[in-house]
């Protein structure tokens, strides 16, 4: 029973990993649909005896989303919110003037700001390159980015591993015009707890 398994994980894992586990179970992009629903997880949580980690699981469930395509998107989403940036929409869909349909990892509607989070596999893994050379992938991605930039007020690009560096994320987003309600974190600050 996936809902029970993910609840058990959420009870014991640290916050980011707990939310990531729930997000992956709830992910609606899976070809056969989500493994569980938030309602199923919540129902098990409510009808079972109080257990160690219930508060942690409730917090993680409250922060979960059905559109996080991978754990790095979850981590980045949680981080940008903890850094004081607005709550983003996930997998923002746009049809560009060229007719190309694109999805943005995180989108901040009030600021009309688009955030792309890419791992290096996007440029090197056969799973994503579709037989194209890394150079062709980079050129295609740059053309896509140029077209998106003409459609939004702000655009940022981060590597997936940047989620491990809160100051870098803060600096990139603020330099690209996204406003935060919090000051820049100091080195060593625990931003995500």
Could you describe the 3D structure shown?
The protein has 193 residues and is of the alpha+beta class. The protein has 2 domains: 2-62, no CATH class; 71-175, no CATH class. 46% of the residues lie in helices and 14% in strands. It contains 9 helices and 4 strands; from the N terminus they run αααααβββαααβα. The protein has a 4-stranded mixed beta sheet with strand order 1-2-3-4, sandwiched between helices. Strand 2 (101-108) and strand 3 form a beta hairpin. The longest helix has 16 residues, at 134-149. It is globular, with a radius of gyration of 18 Å. The mean pLDDT is 93.
- SS-based class: alpha+beta
Q: What's the helical proportion of residues? A: 40-55%
| Biggest pleated-sheet summary | 4 strands, mixed
Can you count the beta strands?
4
Number of domains: 2
Poorly predicted spans? none
Which percent band covers the strand fraction? 5-15%
Order of strands in the sheet with most strands: 1-2-3-4
What would you call the quaternary organization?
Answer: single chain
By DSSP (H or I, 4+ residues per run), the number of helices equals: 9
What is the residue-averaged pLDDT?
93
Q: For the CA atoms, what is the radius of gyration?
A: 18 Å
Q: How widely separated are the two ends?
A: 28 Å
Shape: globular
Order of secondary-structure elements: HHHHHEEEHHHEH
């Amino acid at each position: 029973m996936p809902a029970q398994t993910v609840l058990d994980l959420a009870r014991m894992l640290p916050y980011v990993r707990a939310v990531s586990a729930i997000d992956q179970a709830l992910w609606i992009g899976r070809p056969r649909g989500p493994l569980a629903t938030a309602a199923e997880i919540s129902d098990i949580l409510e009808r079972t005896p109080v257990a160690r980690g219930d508060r942690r699981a409730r917090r993680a469930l409250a922060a979960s989303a059905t559109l996080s395509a991978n754990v790095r998107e979850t981590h980045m989403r949680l981080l940008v919110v903890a850094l004081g940036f607005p709550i983003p929409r996930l997998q923002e869909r746009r049809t560009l003037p060229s007719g190309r349909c694109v999805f943005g990892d995180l989108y901040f509607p009030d600021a009309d700001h688009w955030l792309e989070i890419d791992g290096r596999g996007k440029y090197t893994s056969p799973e994503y390159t579709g037989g194209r050379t890394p150079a062709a992938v980079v050129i295609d991605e740059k053309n896509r980015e140029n077209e998106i930039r003409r459609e939004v007020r702000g655009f940022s690009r981060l590597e997936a591993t940047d989620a491990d560096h809160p100051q870098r994320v803060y600096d990139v987003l603020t330099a690209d015009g996204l406003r935060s309600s919090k000051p820049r974190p100091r080195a060593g600050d625990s931003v995500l707890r």
